[in-house]
Structure formats: C-alpha cells, structure tokens
Design a protein that fits this description.
This protein has about 150 residues and is α/β, with parallel strands linked by helices. It has one domain: Ribonuclease H-like superfamily/Ribonuclease H (Nucleotidyltransferase, domain 5, 2-Layer Sandwich), CATH 3.30.420.10. About 40% of the residues lie in helices and about 20% in strands. It is built from 6 helices and 5 strands. A 5-stranded mixed beta sheet has the order 2-1-5-3-4, with helices on both faces.
C-alpha cells in the first residue's frame, strides 16, 4: 500500500491524504484535490517522485495558482514534518496492527489521522493539537508539504 499525505507545515494538520495499492499519479491527484477544498497554499512542497513531476500534478497546482517546490535529491530532511508524521503513524498505528486487507488499512489509517489532527497534542505546538493551531491560530503559514 502507498500513502500520500498533504500536511500544513505550520500546524502539522493533515489537510488531505490518499491510500492506494498502486504507486500511480491518480491517487496523489485525489489527495491534492481533497486538500485544495480545505486550503489554498502559496507553495506546495514535495519530493521528486514521478507522481510529483507528472504533467497532471504540475498542471493541477499551476491552475490553482500554487508555486511548486521540490526537495533536493536524497534530502529527506527537507520534508521533516511529513517524515515525522510517517514515523508517528508507523509506530503508533501501522506496526501495532496487522491489517488483513487494504480496507482494514484504510480504516485504521483514517482513524489514526483523525486522532493525529484532533486529539494528539504536540510539544512543538505548545501542547496543542494540529487542528487547534490550524483552525484557530493566525494564518502565518502558506506552505503545505506532501510526500
């Protein structure tokens, strides 16, 4: 299974995500479209995978007036907030559950991301949840990252 998540860097709020059995561009586009219903960033950052360099992805962002930023090759640290999300998701959900189907994985991950956004406090956010910061803080952040 492949997971893509779109996260607001300032608040760590996951604004969109998709899970698929194939590593194709379609599920990435679905996640971006979902995210764009909630947020319209000035800049979208991603790695350099083929899904993010595809003409469909680039056209979607450009048509929305969003600037495109991509990490340097071998620079996972450029997307540290998303990498931290992956670590939390793996250790707090995926590794603790033995999913027997893609449907179970989708349900478990959806449940975790709901928890992550609305109930899991973050020390770096002054012990607030990403939702508290995303919805109630000043709109300081205009950069969303995906990986």
């Amino acid at each position: 299974m492949y997971l893509v998540a779109i996260i607001n860097w300032y608040s760590r709020f996951v604004v969109g995500w998709a899970l698929d059995q194939c590593l194709e561009t379609t599920f990435v586009l679905q996640a971006v479209e979902e995210a764009l219903t909630r947020a319209r960033p000035e800049i979208m950052n991603s790695d350099q995978g083929s899904q993010f360099t595809s003409s469909e992805y680039i056209n979607l962002l450009q048509s929305a007036g969003i600037k495109i930023s991509m990490d340097g090759k071998g620079r996972a640290i450029d997307n540290i907030f998303t990498e931290r999300l992956w670590r939390s998701l793996k250790y707090e959900e995926v590794y603790l559950n033995e999913y027997s189907s893609p449907r179970e994985a989708r349900i478990g991950i959806a449940r975790y991301l709901e928890f992550y956004n609305y109930r899991r406090i973050h020390q770096s956010l002054e012990y607030k949840t990403p939702a508290e910061v995303y919805y109630y803080a000043n709109d300081k952040a205009k950069c969303i990252s995906i990986l």
